[in-house]
Write a structure and sequence with these properties.
Layout (H helix, E strand, L loop, with lengths): L7 H19 L4 H7 L9 H4 L14 H34 L5 H4 L11 H30 L10 E8 L2 E10 L5 E5 L1 E5 L4 E7 L4 E5 L3 E6 L5 E5 L5 E7 L11 E7 L1 H12 L38 H7 L9 H13 L30 E2 L4 E2 L2 H9 L1 H4 L4 H8 L7 H13 L2
Parallel strand pairs: 1-5, 4-10
Antiparallel strand pairs: 1-2, 2-3, 5-8, 6-7, 6-9, 9-10, 11-12
Helix pairs in contact: 4-6, 9-13, 10-13
This protein binds dinuclear copper ion (CUA).
The site of dinuclear copper ion has 9 residues, from loops.
């Protein structure tokens, strides 16, 4: 191959034509190159998407002031270190080329006087290092204070939430939203907040250490047993945000997820109204059960994703659509599911407010589970198929989870396909 390269000019051409061009051609985001070159930040073609940094959990595209402040600190650190890199690399390159030994004589030359021990150089370098650190420390300290808790001026406006980590799901409580008859509004894995308003979150853990992370809204804060941690977030506008546990907490840590749904003030208060209601009752008609079709559950591959990712509408609109009753409800199937919910002992661990005996607290509150966009700790879409997959064999979806270990296995709970379909119909009816 080398004989094909007679001069350095052809080497450059070789590298650019034979190596770089196919590489660039194969690059899927090639259409972004022009936009990047002209620095035109077209929607969907930002530098973040060009570099593949525009995922659902991107920290490079922020949606609130806390995450933005943290991103700014990251940039300041990058700018300072990049500047140092350029200066050091330039001096190194200059020295390497300038003082390169070109003749045999030069190779044997006595080394020039060394900089070691030169007070001016040494003090200068120390001073420059300190200056660089101070330059990074000022915005860092400001960011630590700002992101720790809601700014004083905004404190009165802050909305209060308590988030508790469980192996492996999150409980969200609204301590100021009392429910008629006792208790407060409680939900699981989907934190609904008012957009444009600071939200103060008390972080708790019931078992082991978890870490609460909504990349687009705020950095991670640990949930520690027997210790009260706090954080605050604010979503600039209504939206649907992905969150995740960020501290190893056991078998299913990697699948411990959640969502944050930010709603306009009006939508938020409507949602609170809906949540404060007892479970939605669907009266059976008496004879429709025979018409129900009991399609068998298909086989799922191990670790097959349960999130479609393809929304016909925006994720937020899809979430809003889930607040309304399903179109093909079968009241008699729902009634049968409700009976099974008690007879199969689901009521021991799950609360369905208003349903006799369903006062369990070990698992998520299911009073309005049908109105959530996800189930199983944000792992699966809340569709009938995925919900049946979940209750069919929770241990296969989320290894080691309590519903499987302490429920199905310990109590030898067996569900037929018909049972599962009825339970799914009941749970989906809980809007
Ligand atoms: Cu909870 Cu990792």
């Amino acid at each position: 191959m080398l004989e094909n390269l007679p001069s350095s000019v052809s080497l450059v051409r070789f590298v650019s034509m034979r190596l770089l061009k196919p590489l660039l051609n194969s690059f899927s985001h090639i259409r972004c190159l022009g936009a990047l070159a002209s620095l035109a930040m077209l929607p969907g073609c930002s530098w973040q998407s060009f570099l593949g940094m525009d995922g659902k959990q991107s920290t490079m595209i922020t949606e609130g002031p806390v995450a933005q402040t943290q991103l700014n600190v990251f940039y300041v650190t990058c700018y300072v270190t990049f500047t140092i890199f350029v200066i050091v690399a330039s001096i190194l390159a200059y020295a390497t080329l300038k003082f390169k030994a070109r003749t045999q004589e030069e190779e044997r030359a006595v080394p020039p006087e060394q900089g070691h021990g030169n007070p001016l150089v040494e003090v200068g370098l120390i001073a420059a290092s300190v200056l660089a650190l101070v330059f990074i420390a000022i915005p860092t300290l400001k960011a630590i204070w700002y992101t720790y808790d809601v700014p004083v001026a905004d404190k009165a406006n802050a909305y209060e939430i308590t988030a508790t980590g469980y192996q492996w799901w999150f409980k969200f409580e609204y301590p100021n939203e009392q429910i008629p008859g006792g208790g407060v509004i409680t939900t699981g894995n989907e934190l609904v907040i008012p957009a444009g308003r600071p939200v103060h979150i008390n972080l708790r853990s019931i078992d082991v250490m978890h870490s609460f992370w909504i990349p687009k809204l705020a950095g991670k804060v640990d949930m520690i047993p027997n210790r009260g941690n706090l954080m605050w977030i604010k979503a600039n506008k209504p939206g649907y945000y992905w969150g995740q546990c960020a501290e190893f907490c056991g078998d299913s840590h990697a699948v411990m997820r959640f969502r944050v749904i930010a709603l306009s003030q009006r939508d938020f208060y409507n949602w609170l109204d809906q949540q404060s209601q007892t479970y939605r009752k669907v009266e059976p008609t008496g004879s429709n059960l025979g018409k129900a079709t009991f399609a068998s559950l298909r086989n799922f591959k191990e670790n097959e994703t349960g999130i479609s990712g393809n929304f016909e509408v925006s994720p937020l609109d899809a979430w809003k659509a889930k607040q309304f009753p399903e179109k093909n409800e079968n009241p008699d199937l729902i009634a049968k599911g409700k009976e099974l919910f008690a007879s199969k002992t689901c009521i021991t661990c799950h609360n369905v407010r208003g349903l006799q005996g369903a006062v369990g607290v070990a698992g998520p509150d299911l009073t309005h589970v049908g109105a959530r966009s996800t189930i199983a700790g944000g792992l699966l879409d809340n569709t009938s198929e995925q919900l049946q997959r979940w209750i069919h064999n929770p241990g296969a979806v989320k290894p080691g989870n309590k519903m499987w270990v302490n429920g199905y296995v310990l109590n030898n709970i067996k569900l037929t396909n018909e049972d599962e379909v009825a339970l799914v119909a009941f749970l989906q009816s809980l809007k």
